Amino acid sequence: AMEKSYLSIFLLLIAVSCVLAKDAGKKDTKDTTAKPKLPQTLSRGWGDQLIWTQTYEEALFRSKHSQKPLMIIHHLEDCPHSQALKKVFAEHKDIQKLAEKFILLNLVYETTDKNLAPDGQYVPRILFIDPTLTVRADITGRYSNRLYAYEPSDISLLYSNMQKALKLLKSEL
């Protein structure tokens, strides 16, 4: 396990140095519209200023220790439904603000945890997990055939589901 963590730190250092090298070559062209380059990789466009975890295991660990609920977004880069949802999610100011109260993870692959696919492995789907590491299968969207799917038009439902995930937490701890 030790070698693994060294490896990931080493890879991270390489990534950081590549970004720094790129920026150094630009000299003083102050482009204020440029988004910060590092967070982009983990956010994958779902909210570049939010803090995203890298793996499911790390997300569970952080949720448990911070007592914050975990929000997991399964999506695919080449799925138009995922892209459309991502766009409204990233542009929704209230959702971006509320998301700061969660441990956040977005995944473009399936985990081996069957609890994250209560009714199948489709994208996009969003699930909430509380700090006791229980998947909140009761927090659903509006489609009976895909309980955890959200369309762009469901963004306010997603927002209220995020509020619900936080409220349940307070009442139960």
TrEMBL record:
It holds the Pfam family Thioredoxin_7. Its main location: endoplasmic reticulum. GO terms for cellular component: endoplasmic reticulum; extracellular region. InterPro entries: AGR/TXD, Thioredoxin-like_sf. Belongs to the AGR family. Residues 1-21 form the signal peptide. It comes from the Eukaryota. It comes from Serilophus lunatus (silver-breasted broadbill). It is found in: Endoplasmic reticulum; Secreted. Keywords: Endoplasmic reticulum, Secreted, Signal. The gene is Agr2. GO terms for molecular function: dystroglycan binding. This is AGR2 protein.
